[in-house]
Amino acid sequence: MDNGDILWDPGNAGLDYKKLSGFQAIIHLSGENLSNWFWTEKQKARIISSRVDTTKLLARAISCLPDPKPDFLCASAAHYYGDRRAETVNEESSAGEGFLAGVVKAWEGAADEARSAGARVLHLRFGVILTRRGGFLSKIMPVFYLGLGGKLGSGRQYLPWITLQDVMEIFEFCLQRTDIKGPLNVVAPQEITNRQFTEQLAGLLSRPAFMTIPAAILKFIFREMAEEMLLGSIRMKPDVLLKHGYTFQYPTLQTALKAVLSEEAD
Asked: For residue 122, what is the enclosing H or E element?
């Protein structure tokens, strides 16, 4: 196409790999939305295939390219570690249990063909990305504005988080630092529980946050999704980024939320 776009059809394994020749890097971020009311078996199948099948297709294409292979930066997720309660995990920690942990293991494994062919592969294990342009924060903000915000269950579960600005900076950082490969925890260094997140967001909005949504109600409404996404605890550290000297633009939740809220007001 004359605008430089490359069309692909993951469902039918359609991709002209020759058009990828000459690229320095390929960044793969696609995946079915996880935040539905609850996961049906069809939804689970889409969650898996939208990550695993697309990654396999790109990995195969990269393996067919002449050397030097492009770097392959592939989205992954904090859910690799599963619900670990208060245990601290880093990139060397083992995989956890549960549906999402299994999805992430298969997702990362789907890049093996590119890795075996000599490409530098990074698995970007994202925490919750804070932005008003979509995602987690945009969904809960209306509730907090109404003064109905509150902790989920006990509120003791850890919530790995990062700003969208840091995510973009980390992409650039990883493209420049070719010595980084493998899993990469893309989260801010400050560990925050659901209760702390709730209190800080409510405080910045000058709204009360006295409510608690019992875990039993969340499980009744959202079923398995509640246990893994709302009540699961992932206390993860960005050890690889810190080791390689990345400087976070927003290392604390307070500064991050202030920045996100001020951007929304502009």
From this structure: strand 121-126
